[in-house]
Design goal:
The structure is a single chain. The chain is of the alpha/beta class and 238 residues long. Helices cover 34% and strands 23% of the residues. It is built from 8 helices and 10 strands. It has a 5-stranded mixed beta sheet with strand order 3-2-1-9-10. A 5-stranded mixed beta sheet has the order 4-5-6-8-7, with helices on one face. A hairpin with a 2-residue loop joins strand 9 and strand 10. Helix 3 crosses helix 4 and helix 7 packs antiparallel against helix 8.
Length: 238
């Protein structure tokens, strides 16, 4: 079984579409999405429509959490900067009724049983929805998480940091960010998990996408230009 692993799309449909084209020859049978589907690029409907069409199994991330709060008539304190808050409010305003329903139904984690292997899907970590696990995170932390895990495979997002580590008998995988990498390379990041009997193989990929299409869309929606530069330079904007 080949499984497409994606995370942190951040509403960047041009990047997701590029991943879809890039991965097509690999013939994946399942798609797992670790959240932060929305916010920062103005394509929330196109992104969620794709996930629904391809029957991707998705969980919610921290940006999705804030959009869900807005959809429920609530608010949030952070981010406080107006130029950042508008990225959330504009996303909530764009969503179709079907895609609002999609977001409202998302859970913070999923445990799957595929090919006799238990796979956990989390945004931050199994212990904390917003914990940041990087490729550089100390092995001690992964070992602690492994001791408490009932899964042979733990897939996370949130840090936008691609890795595959086997620690304490657990495969820890982060596919990186489809739509918003922070390493100075704007290419989309994803991974393929392959399960063959008792063998678990993970391969990471990068693919280019039309960054300027995202920049133009931000301009057309009168959203802050700083986010266009964020996508161009693949650097984080606080």
């Amino acid at each position: 079984m080949k499984i497409l692993l994606i995370s942190d799309i951040h509403g960047n449909f041009p990047a997701l579409e590029a991943v879809s084209r890039h991965v097509q020859p690999l013939a994946c049978e399942q798609i797992l999405n670790c959240g932060d589907t929305t916010v920062y690029a103005p394509f929330p409907n196109e992104t969620i429509n794709w996930l629904r069409q391809h029957k991707a199994l998705s969980i919610r991330g921290n940006t999705d959490d804030k959009v869900i709060k807005l959809l429920k008539g609530k608010t949030f304190k952070k981010p406080a900067k107006p130029e950042k808050r508008i990225m959330y409010t504009s996303t909530a305003a764009m969503l179709s009724a079907q895609n609002i329903e999609f977001l409202l139904e998302l859970k913070k984690k999923k445990i799957l049983h595929l090919d006799q292997i238990f796979i956990g899907l989390f945004h931050g970590s199994p212990a904390d929805h917003e914990e940041l696990l990087f490729a550089e995170t100390k092995e001690k932390r992964f070992r602690e998480l492994a001791q408490d895990s009932s899964c042979q495979v733990v897939i996370t997002g949130h840090s936008h940091s691609p890795y595959h580590k086997i620690i304490g008998g657990v495969h820890f995988i982060n596919p990186g960010s489809v739509g918003r990498m922070f390493d100075g390379r704007p290419e989309a990041s994803y991974a393929i998990l392959e399960l063959v009997q008792d063998t678990i193989t993970v391969t990471h990929y990068r693919c280019s996408y039309d960054v300027e299409a995202v920049v133009r869309a931000l301009h057309e929606h009168h959203l802050p230009a700083i986010y266009g530069e964020m996508f161009r330079t693949a650097t984080k904007r606080n």
